Amino acid sequence: TSLVVVMGAFNKSHGTCDCGKCRCDAGWSGDACQYPTKCDLTKKKSNQMCKNSQDVICSNAGTCHCGRCKCDDSDGSGLVYGKFCECDDRECIDDETEEICGGHGKCYCGNCYCEAGWHGDKCEFQCDIPPWESKRRCTAPDGRVCSNRGTCVCGECSCHDVDPTGDWGDIHGDTCECDERDCRAVYDRYSDDFCSGHGQCNCGRCDCKAGWSGEKCEQPRSCPLSAEESVRRCQGGAERPCSGRGKCECGKCTCYPPGDRRVYGKTCECDDRRCEDLEGVVCGGHGTCSCGHCVCERGWFGTLCQHPRKCNMTEEQSRSLCESADGILCSGKGSCHCGKCICSAEEWYISGEFCDCDDRDCDKHDGLICTGNGICSCGSCECWDGWNGNACEIWLGTEYP
């Protein structure tokens, strides 16, 4: 019974389930009746909908059918999958044993996750010490394995985020306990401006020079305000000082990036970059930006004024454009309007063309998704100009904030 229910959800309104297989209605095809045999989209529009984040159609591992990717499966293994065929589990097959992850792990989206006691890209190496001893050697004084900043491999920590120079890197120590990024007001691995330029960084903690104080030596002792009062004034009603978009000195915020008039306000609370889409269009061309929020023209609505109030499509046409490859309308997490999904406002983190993305998957720095310096796009940070890094935490601009 449960199989019929599940399969019924997959071929929703486009077929019936018969003994675990879909029998598609006229005009539909595919294992889950997810492909329309007649397409109302232009080839250009269809291909655009099939492009991955690198603008490659179906990741060169499938073909595009009416805006949906059909992944290569010539051998019937089903190892290539994903919305854009971005996952290729053939990468996990061990060349010698021809087993996935050497038979000692599980493969997810082309990456092996090894069982205890095994390591290597394809779980091909066995550790000569027991798992409990390996974990003990990798455990930091605070009880976290590799301080949650690295991977434990056979009793040794491999710290994440190695410096391009090949030296220790920004994160180092036997158990990855030292994080030099904690010494920087704005993390920039290519700059020596540790501790706001007024101190020495020792294992992630700043020892300030005479005349300076604060966690990152940002507070001049000549300032009449205490460090706490300075931070309080810079924070205002925001969650973080200068809203996480500026540098606080003696109770005043300097917003960054330098010279970018889109970030402003007493506590840098206004960020008009949030009104732009990934192509840089402000409010979809149908509104104006006010302190990081779009004010839409008449006839348009949405966070970026991307939805027209009037729709020239039939309900059936609209719904067909809102169905993901599995045949579910907006992944069950939103409503359909004029061929586009409007994701549930109650779950702020749900996004994507078919509401199939979770913005909580995007990297954070200092507690902020994409460090507030980029847009979370389906689990990956798309950084604004001048910023780089998995969490857009690295400033690469010519002028240091």
From TrEMBL:
<dbReference type="GO" id="GO:0033627">
    <property type="term" value="P:cell adhesion mediated by integrin"/>
</dbReference>
<dbReference type="GO" id="GO:0005178">
    <property type="term" value="F:integrin binding"/>
</dbReference>
<keyword id="KW-1015">Disulfide bond</keyword>
<dbReference type="InterPro" id="IPR013111">
    <property type="entry name" value="EGF_extracell"/>
</dbReference>
<dbReference type="InterPro" id="IPR057073">
    <property type="entry name" value="EGF_integrin_2"/>
</dbReference>
<keyword id="KW-0964">Secreted</keyword>
<dbReference type="GO" id="GO:0005576">
    <property type="term" value="C:extracellular region"/>
</dbReference>
<dbReference type="GO" id="GO:0007229">
    <property type="term" value="P:integrin-mediated signaling pathway"/>
</dbReference>
<dbReference type="InterPro" id="IPR015812">
    <property type="entry name" value="Integrin_bsu"/>
</dbReference>
<dbReference type="GO" id="GO:0005925">
    <property type="term" value="C:focal adhesion"/>
</dbReference>
<feature type="domain" description="Epidermal growth factor-like">
    <location>
        <begin position="362"/>
        <end position="392"/>
    </location>
</feature>
<dbReference type="GO" id="GO:0016477">
    <property type="term" value="P:cell migration"/>
</dbReference>
<keyword id="KW-0325">Glycoprotein</keyword>
<feature type="domain" description="Epidermal growth factor-like">
    <location>
        <begin position="92"/>
        <end position="123"/>
    </location>
</feature>
<feature type="domain" description="Epidermal growth factor-like">
    <location>
        <begin position="13"/>
        <end position="33"/>
    </location>
</feature>
<dbReference type="GO" id="GO:0008305">
    <property type="term" value="C:integrin complex"/>
</dbReference>
<dbReference type="Pfam" id="PF07974">
    <property type="entry name" value="EGF_2"/>
</dbReference>
<keyword id="KW-0245">EGF-like domain</keyword>
<keyword id="KW-0732">Signal</keyword>
<feature type="domain" description="Epidermal growth factor-like">
    <location>
        <begin position="275"/>
        <end position="305"/>
    </location>
</feature>
<feature type="domain" description="Integrin beta epidermal growth factor-like">
    <location>
        <begin position="46"/>
        <end position="86"/>
    </location>
</feature>
<dbReference type="Pfam" id="PF23105">
    <property type="entry name" value="EGF_integrin"/>
</dbReference>
<dbReference type="Pfam" id="PF23106">
    <property type="entry name" value="EGF_Teneurin"/>
</dbReference>
<dbReference type="InterPro" id="IPR057243">
    <property type="entry name" value="Integrin_I-EGF_CS"/>
</dbReference>
<dbReference type="GO" id="GO:0007160">
    <property type="term" value="P:cell-matrix adhesion"/>
</dbReference>
<dbReference type="GO" id="GO:0098609">
    <property type="term" value="P:cell-cell adhesion"/>
</dbReference>
<keyword id="KW-0677">Repeat</keyword>
<dbReference type="GO" id="GO:0009986">
    <property type="term" value="C:cell surface"/>
</dbReference>
<protein>
    <recommendedName>
        <fullName>Integrin beta-like protein 1</fullName>
    </recommendedName>
</protein>
